[in-house]
Design brief:
The protein has helices spanning about 15-20, 45-50, 60-65, 75-90, 110-115, 115-135, 145-155, 170-175, 190-195, 200-205, 210-215, 220-225, 260-280, 310-320, 350-355, 355-375, 390-405, and strands at about 5-10, 30-35, 40-45, 70-75, 95-100, 105-110, 140-145, 160-165, 245-255, 280-295, 300-310, 330-340, 340. It is an alpha+beta fold.
Length: about 400
């Protein structure tokens, strides 16, 4: 094997953490995400809930229709991030390169450490054992010659599974008569295009590669390669500066017509974006406003900017963009910065050395927060750090929305 890759994927991660911490939930259909009376979707659910047809990204109302007896909980992201840190610390021990895909998922290049399939198998079993004994959770692990094959392998025996796909031919033998959606990156819309041309299985892709490429272009070439077991991508450690953007958004429980409220919510979103960017030493050279209207029509508006490196600047640009959109009831609002650059490589300006300029920025931020406190009877004193937590942000925004509705 030219390279040996392990894919580790936790089993129903959020739900498993909650069950670990509260054994009374064990064996019950647990659904993490929005509550049934709220807008939103399922983040993840226990395997008991999946028996009722509930799955991640499902509308929460549909999940409740299928499983009214389920236990519904909001996610506790701070807890899950802490557990994720423990997991990745264990996994990364065994890899020369580790690519974090999500809180609960990673690719590990163990070519040097394992040397052969047997060595990789031993590493995989050690990872599973340590994950169980040190963190109290189970994971599914795949060992393979490529990233796609390793991910496919980890999904093959869930939960708490282990599977190997040593060669491209092994991958082809496993996948050849499966639906095209079983291939990595083939989603519902892509599959429908293939179905319309009579291409339903991996075997069909192999027999009609030119048609797949004609239909889908570059994506078709990628899918065709996968159908032949070809994937030469390397495990690439994630770097925050490689992200295309940094953003935060919220969904309202009832549509919002009050654009003054939306402008105020942008203050909190800008603070969250600024905080995350500073954590990674990044700044943006553009701001994007995202809106989803009541009828699910979504729009984005973007604007290139000078170095956007503080919450006030982000808010100012987003607010300008908001002033020029069609005024209809809004379901979701978000803001992000893009064209990211590292602070280390940034050319300093006179303002960076100007203490008065920095003090003005701090004063402007305080002025914005004081206005929110006065307008909505909020209390940020000593509690501002909590606003960066997703649950607290959503509760605060909902409180603001209800306050506007009552005034």
């Amino acid at each position: 094997m030219k390279q040996i890759i392990i894919h580790v994927d936790m089993d129903a991660f959020f739900a498993s953490v909650e069950t670990r911490d509260n054994p009374a939930l064990r064996g019950k259909p647990l659904i993490i995400g929005s509550l049934p009376q709220e807008r939103g979707v399922v983040a993840t659910c226990s395997y008991e809930a999946r028996k009722y047809g509930v799955h991640s990204a499902m509308n929460i109302k549909e999940a409740y229709r299928r499983c009214p007896q389920g236990i519904y909980m909001h996610p506790n992201m701070d807890k899950y991030k802490a557990v994720s840190g423990q997991l990745h610390q264990i996994w990364n021990t065994y890899a020369s390169a580790a690519e974090t895909i999500a809180l609960d998922e990673a690719y590990l290049d163990v070519t040097k450490q394992a040397q052969n399939l047997e060595g990789a198998r031993q590493i995989a079993m050690t990872i599973k054992q340590r994950t169980r004994t040190e963190v109290g959770l189970t994971c599914s692990v795949g060992v393979a010659y490529s990233k796609t094959a390793a991910k496919t392998a980890s999904e093959e025996k869930k939960p708490d599974g282990y599977f190997e796909i040593p060669t491209p031919q092994d991958f082809v033998d496993l996948m050849i008569d499966r639906d095209v959606q079983s291939l990595y990156t083939v989603g519902k819309m892509t599959a429908e295009k293939l179905y319309a041309s009579g291409i339903r299985t991996v075997r069909d892709i192999r027999e009609s590669p030119e048609e797949v490429i004609r239909l889908l272009g570059k994506q078709g070439q990628w899918i065709t390669n996968l159908a032949f077991g070809i994937d030469e991508r390397k495990v690439t450690p994630y770097r925050p500066q490689d992200a295309k953007s940094i953003g935060r958004e919220v969904t309202f429980q009832e549509d919002v017509n009050h654009y003054g409220l939306l402008k105020d919510v942008l203050v909190l979103l800008a603070l969250c974006v600024d905080r995350r960017a500073k954590r990674y030493g990044l700044y943006g050279n553009g701001v994007t406003l995202k809106l989803t209207y009541f009828d699910m029509k979504g729009i984005t508006r973007s604007r290139l900017t000078p170095a956007c490196d503080n919450a006030v600047m982000i808010w100012q640009e987003a607010a300008r963009l908001l002033e020029n959109v069609e005024r209809r009831p809004v379901r979701l609002i978000g803001v992000s910065i893009y064209n990211l650059s590292s602070e280390e490589g940034r050319q300093l300006t006179l303002e960076d050395y100007n203490t008065d300029a920095r003090q003005r920025q701090d004063a402007e931020q305080k002025k914005l927060l004081d206005a929110l406190q006065s307008r909505y009877h909020l209390d940020f004193a000593g509690h501002l750090d909590q606003i960066y937590q997703m649950d607290t942000l959503h509760r605060t925004v909902e409180y603001m929305r209800k306050h506007i509705g009552q005034s």
